[in-house]
Amino acid sequence: MSPLTSATATALCAGAMVWLVVGQDPRVTRARVLLAEGGVLDPPPRWSWARLWPQARGDLRRRREWLCLPVGLLLAVAGESVLPLLAAAVATPLVRRWSRAREMSRQQDLRADGVIAFCAAVAGELRAGLQPGQALLSVARSTGALGAAEASVTAAARFGGDVPAELRVAAQEPGAGGLAGVAACWRVAVEGGSGLAAGLDRLEAALRAERDQRADLRAHLAGVRATIGLLALLPLVGLAMGWALGADPLRVLLHSPAGLLCLLIGGVLEVAGVCWAGRIVRKGLPALPGDST
Known about the structure:
Shape: elongated
Mean pLDDT: 77
Strand content: under 5%
Transmembrane segments: 224-246, 258-278
Distance between the termini: 49 Å
Low-confidence stretches: 1-5, 18-26, 31-42
InterPro entries: T2SS_GspF_dom
Helix content: over 70%
Keywords: Cell membrane, Membrane, Transmembrane, Transmembrane helix
Number of helices: 12
Membrane topology: Multi-pass membrane protein
Structural class: mainly alpha
Domain Type II secretion system protein GspF: 118-241
Radius of gyration: 27 Å
Order of helices and strands: HHHHHHHHHHHH
């Protein structure tokens, strides 16, 4: 491959990367056109690094899987083989799935924190003299614990419906398992005359203890995760050492039968090892209350 071709491919790769990271969403432009007063569209803001960096960082977090393609293209150009580009195309949906799993886990943690705040807020409103339905209505939106079931739960509380049943439905969403305990406390308070505030206080303490235990385990497993990541990067360190010694490891791996065999076996073992270690770490974490995944 000629130097001119390599330079052209590298420039195209960099341009595609910048477009993916900082490219403007067409929905934003459409909204600005539709909402412009008097039919006049304001000029776009002037370009600056101070404005570009936060946007680029946010887009990079949301579209990190698309970085596999520029990296694969660079390796394909450096190794003069199409195999790295094919590997990047295969890795893109896997990285997207991993990113979505991490985002879902983060949303579940936020939802669990919202349920704890919901219990504390409802108990506080009850002690302030409000009725259970009024207390629920006053804090339902501020905590975000009810999620998509907020409308049905608030409607049941406002019009005398079956609030515990609606809370149990809301508890089926990921991270909201603590709402099943709220439903049980509500049912006992309505049918048995027990204090709802006291029950919610005990439930909040139990949920908070489980959250703290999970946070402690994550802190203890942080070193294990770091070790897994370091071991996963060791093959790249080996390639860098080969280049530093004047060898051409990519040519050996991509243009010789023995290299292709080593690359295939090493890649399979690398993926299997990372997945196995990650599964062991995930098994060490307790599930969120009511989470069956």
